[in-house]
26 kDa periplasmic immunogenic protein (Mahella australiensis), 258 residues
Amino acid sequence: MNNKFLAIATVAVAAVAIILAIGIFGISDGQEADKAKVMYAADDVKIDKSILTAAGEGKVMAKPDRATINMGVQIDDKDAKTAQTQNAQKMDAVVKKLKALGISDEDIKTSQYNVFPQYDYSEDKSTLRGYQVVNMVNVTIKDTAKLGDIIDQATQAGANRMDSIAFTISEPDKYYNEAIAKAIEQAKEKANVMANTAGVKIKATINVSETTAGYQPVYDMGGMEYAKDLATTAAAPTPIASGQLEVKANVVVTFEIQ
């Protein structure tokens, strides 16, 4: 009886050992298979390309067709209310003149309105001497040929403050696209020189990216900061020169070589 029981126990232990061994080796084999599959997948997507990178810059000159200018009225008076009233009257006349010259409401925007107390300082003491009222509007002028005449007529209507003029273009994308095309062509020319010198050939364009873009408005600061009494002293129409705007584009182009 004991011998029979011992034999059965021995068989059971052996069976368990076999099952465990199969499970262990089965898992190990599966892991190795999965690892092999991952390595194979990685080899499938591996990119092994030789590249050449070149930068290019394109420039296009454009004549400005728009201008913006800050203009307005400054009144100084001992009494704040008097200064505000006089300022409002003159500013109303200026705005009416601008509209009569064909400038629309949407192109006339208030940019500043301030009432400043004015003091005299002496021996560490301050004495109020009056008030300064400043009312400024930002005016967009869509015909730069009329700019000088608009400044003169606004001054005659009562404007005595003229800040800097900014010249811009109404279709910047048109010129910028031209600049991009020039920048890419320059990058290609550089790449060809480098490839020929290095003894390789350009196979394809892989990537094109912008690095900097746009243009800066041209500002005319001369003689515009304060135009008080300009209407009575000007002997000729105000000359305004808009010059040229430089529209610039910079790109970096990556090429595949062989």
The chain has five helices and eight strands. The radius of gyration is 39 Å.
